[in-house]
Amino acid sequence: MTQTSSQALLERLPTVRGGLTADASMASLTWFRVGGPADVLFRPADVEDLSAFLAACPLDMPITVVGVGSNLLVRDGGVRGVVIRLGATFGQVEILENNQLRAGAAALDMSVARKAAAAGIAGLEFYAGIPGSIGGALIMNGGAHGGETCDVLVSARAVRRSGEIVTLTNEDFSYSYRHSDVPADLIFVDGLFQGTAGERATIEAHMAEITQKREESQPIRTKTGGSTFKNPEGHKSWQLVDGAGCRGLVRGGAQVSEMHCNFLINTGAANAGDLEGLGEEVRTRVKETSGVSLEWEIKRIGELAHDD
User: Fold this and answer.
1) What H or E segment, with its residue span, contains residue 187?
2) 83-96 average pLDDT score
3) Which of 91, 127, 220, 239 would be 109's cystine partner, CB 3.0–4.6 Å?
4) Is 215 a known active-site residue?
5) pLDDT for position 149
6) Global pTM?
7) Catalytic residue among 111, 227, 237, 257
């Protein structure tokens, strides 16, 4: 969409207290650092601002929600309609009684683990191994190192497309591996989590072990998007990718990581088409060599560039 068209779309939207930006860069919001612009980017001031916007937004307006962009690939043609990104006001972590805490959807998973540890709350250390935010963890049952969101979530608040604010219990998510069955129109704003009493030093030592393992085994210092494919039942994706001869495989400026071959890397000159194309080539080779169909874990949004 042209900048003029984006500006015209902006004029159809309700007045907000947060920020509305036409033709906004998405590449700067993702860890891959690629992708076309959003027609409009909305950063709500708070839950009430988000609710009011959704209630007044034209029903034919496409709406896409993004988190910190750690597991996101935005295609080169950009994203039509409104992209909503929750900011700092949605990133607070509050320690409650009885070893509970409430975390905003924009809170980094690592921050939640650290706040819990400082308060002597055990059971949330696994979040130290997830490079994302709580909003994504809620939707995808984020987990690592033997722990998952379904193990610790009590309830979560969300805003419907109608603007209604609702609360869901853990059971409402119908969690399974890296999946939930919540309606697609829900925008999560925070979650309530239950831990157990623990010793701060013990909890922090466990987190340090998780962090060290991650640094030793994953290319976290590169432009990457985290785990590319979900682990199929009975298999590990990296082993299937490695067995298909894809370790180090290159397409344009994209590469399968030499360190951990379930990670794709932007070596510096990649576009989204390079990365997605490389991922599809890996899926094809794995299918041919093992018979297993890998499923993307990275979320891919937006439109292909006109020349793709």
Assistant:
1) strand 187-194
2) 96
3) 127
4) no
5) 97
6) 0.90
7) 227
